[in-house]
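Folds abound. Consider this:
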Amino acid sequence: MESQTYTLPILSLESTLVFPNLAMPISVQKPASVQAVEAALASEHRMMALFSTRKSGEETSKDVDLYEFGTVATIQLIAKFDTKLQIIVHGVERISIVQILQKQPFLKAQVQPCPVTTLHDIETEALQREVLEHAERYFTLAHPGKELQFPNLLHFEENILQLVYPVAKLLQLELAQEQKLLAAATDKEAMELFNAYLNHEIQVLEIRKKISDQAQEKLSAEQKKYLLREQIKVMQQELGEGSEENVSQELHKKLRETELPEKVKKEVEKEMARLEQIPPSSAEYQVASAHLELVFELPWQNLTTDNLDLNNALQVLDEDHYGLKEIKERIIEQLAVMKLNPRAKSPILCLIGPPGVGKTSLGQSIARALGRKFERFSLGGMHDEAELRGHRRTYIGAMPGRILQSIRRAGVKNPLLMLDEVDKLGQDFRGDPAAALMEILDPAQNDSFHDNYLDLPFDLSQVFFITTANTIDNIPKPLLDRMETLRLSGYSDEEKMEIGRRYLLPRQRTEAGLTSEQFTVPDATLTAVIRRYTRESGVRELERMLGRLARKVAVRFAKGETTPVRVSVPDLPEQLGPERFFVEQLRNDLSPGVATGLAWTESGGDILFIEAIELPDGEKFTLTGHLGEVMKESAMAANSYVLSHGKELGISRCFSAVHLHVPSGAIPKDGPSAGVTMATALASLYLDEVVRSDTAMTGEITLSGMVLPVGGVKEKVLAARRAGLLRVILPRENNKDLTSLPDQVKDEMEFIFVDRIEDVLREAIPGLIQEQATHEK
């Protein structure tokens, strides 16, 4: 056996040792060690030599100092984590190095087996029995009160090293001691070393047991109880569970510190008494304690002091928003009322307007002006009533509603709470959130609001509620009746110019990391962006375009350029692409049967072209364009009126079939305000006269020829102005709606107010006057 040699890769171990017949995990990280393992895996038997080093160092260094004896081991399992290997090796036999064959890229050597000599004299047998007795004594001390889990020690009599090596690992010896044990040439020498190590460990365990027994005798009954309680606390902390006593004490402390209304306090005291009767391990205990935690976290009496300085409020609102005169006046009025009557209930305001006009940011400004905490959440798509009222505590995963959660986050009972997108509430089998809002948004009821989870009355009357919506059509009428509606119409080009110059451009410049010297946009360029690259009621798209310009400039400065950039109008196609809107040039020359109307959408006003043509055959009157029932009825009424008054209007032709179409057929359209436009288009077709291309119109008609008022006049007028149509025909009763228009818009545009369809046709069709004059002659 000693004459047989192997050539094996060597894995040097710095702080451990692997005994024969023992499996151990080893972590391998150094590149040379990893290559040695890979070389062993590539061999047939997956074997390698394991030697411990006397000092740390690289395996490939010249002064590698390995212990004389090591172990041949087979690699049984391997796992790889990035560049690190985790292997499990099983020791086979003791070896020594005959000759080192290579040091790069890893150690490889010729090794020979060094088996341990077994002696059979009487002294060795006696030593073997002593080792077995000491081993049994060691296990008894190391595991008191337990049956010996180690296999029967008697079967190790045939090969005592099968006991010596594993137990030596349990003793956690130093590397030098383990190495001495491995270096023992005979089993007798190994047993002598092991017996010494084992005796030392037994002495330590006996002294430790003696100290423990003495200390245990001195403990009194009360001390034992205290020790047990402390141990229970530690275990509960590790398990994430609180002590019943600690939780109860903490809740009683919060009850004393929290100022609760008298009715609420009585209910909470009952809940506290009930909690003390529930076992802590019960699920009901956790539900009850969580409910009480919520009660103590709510701001039952905490209030912020309102800043009722009217000049300060107006200054804050002007700093954050341009225009919006009516909204600002309403806020100032409310502050004046609160100043004169501190007990006045907070209003319920509903800001209605197209996207991008500043509804949400206006709520933040109001909160800043008042000095109140601001909380916001969206109602869009909410279809579960429990999201507002909360779930009943009997349900798994129950939690309070969004209203109470917002108030808890604010920490006061009078925050400004903004409910966005109230017009986009859903409704299904789980309830109707709008019905829950009817109690929340009613000042006469919300002073005792009941959340299903809290199940106690909470006063919401001092909360300043502000809701937002794009349209009131989808808001239930009873809910709308509880709110005061304030309309935020679209902005004119001049207003957008001011908003862009004062707010949007500085904000986008700051976000891009630029200064006012590095990036400037003249008024002419800003006007071109507004008119040629955006077509909206709000300013959201305008801000995106300015942000795009700022980012283009930021790229230049990030590349090292230092020349300030002043964006001119000719630069826009390069920076923003081709111009996006040319509506004012699309319909300069209208053909007979085409009229320009005005429409209102949730995104603001828009122009609407209505076309009518003669058909050689087919149905007498055809309507297309994804029209709603009301709009279809308006078309029928317009056609009936024009045909019934054909003689008065000078119509001499009567078509067998007419097709009336409203473009953008994919978009649903409904409403009566296109009645005058349809009548004008049909009259233009029958008379074969063109409608004025600079004129837009809106109004509802009746079968008797009356023109009735419509809504959304401001948005429609601004849409006509954006499209370059400066002449607008309106119902006479809508004259009052023009007061909200900017003075510059009113001065620039021509408004014709009409009472009857004949007045509309005279103003819209120039050839009608000549036709009527000829007819009269």
